[in-house]
Each structure stands twice: as C-alpha cells, then as structure tokens.
Amino acid sequence: MAEGEKKFPLVQIAIIGVVLLLLAGGISYFIASHIAGSNAGDTGPARHREPGVLFKVGDAKDGLIVNIGGGNSSRFIKTSVVLELRPTKNDTKAESKGLNHEEVVISDAVVRVLRAQKVEDFDASKQDIIREKIKTEVNSALGDDKVMQVYITGFVLQ
Fold first, then answer.
1. 71 CB contacts (<8 Å, ≥6 apart)?
2. 115 and 67 in contact (C-beta within 8 Å)?
3. Distance (Å) of CA 129 to CA 8, 25, 66, 110, 133
4. CB neighbours (10 Å) of residue 80?
5. Which of 31, 89, 118, 138 is deepest in the core (most CB within 10 A)?
6. Is the CB of residue 153 less than 8 Å from the CB of residue 113?
C-alpha cells in the first residue's frame, strides 16, 4: 500500500506540471500576439498593402536637375525621386521607347513643386513636407489618387 500511495503524488505532480506548462505557453502567446503585435501596427497600413509600380522621375541615371529659389537665384538641386504608383489593369511589364502622357505629366508636376520651393524648404527636417507636396501635386495632375508613396533617393543642393 505504501507503493500505491507513492504513485498518486507523482501523478498529481506530473499533471500540475503539464497544466503549468500549458498556462505559461498561453500567457506567452497572448503577450506575443497582443502586446508585441500592437507595437508593429504603429507603422500604419503601408506594411500590409500590395506593392505598387515604381516610377523614377527624370533621367534614369541623373534624376532631376532643377533651379530653385526664383528666377534670379543661382541655386540648383539635383535629386532622384521615385514614385510608387497604384497598379492599374493597363500597366504592362514591357517598356516603351517613347514617353507616354502620364510620364510627362508626372515629371512636370514634380518639377513645378521643386521650383516653387525656397532654399530653406530643403532642410532635412522638412523632407516629409516636400514629399507630401509632390504626392498632392502629382495626384492633382493625374486626376486621381494614384501616388501611394514618394521616395527621395538622392539629394544634392548647390
């Protein structure tokens, strides 16, 4: 009888151990999915959207070179701007040798925004404002909300 009584506490300890392991796993899952997951959501909906079509504005190698600060200014900006556009059904993978209407409209809108800026507007802390102005102007020129994101991949002010 001493042997039967000894097995009973061993089984209880094993059951309690399994329950504690399951409880610890459940708590860990809750923390990982709710608390850590809420921090990842702060970056906005851009993380979970489909990628768009990338369009480089200006020359493929040099980007854009634009004079800024008005007609009497001798200041220039050399920049590379890439727009992420919403894909449409008409988008094709094959590249054409000539410019299409949309490319010209986009380039014109970006140049207008850059030329309208003052030298002080190109401060690094104001880069997001310039991005938003480019996005707004291009969307206005195209007539719809086609630009998803604006990337400034190169920037030299002289």
1. none
2. yes
3. 72, 46, 18, 13, 6
4. 19
5. 138
6. no
Measure the CA dihedral 74/105/56/64, to 10°: -10
d(CA 39, CA 43): 8
Instruction: Name the H helices within the chain.
Output: 2-30, 36-40, 101-116, 127-142
What spatial distance separates the first Cα and last Cα of the chain, rounded to whole Å?
95
117: its two tokens: 């800026």
pLDDT at 36: 64
pLDDT of residue 47: 56
| Tokens standing for residue 1 | 């009888």
Average pLDDT of the residues of the chain: 79
Q: Which fold has domain 53-157?
A: Tetrahydropterin Synthase; Chain A (3.30.479)
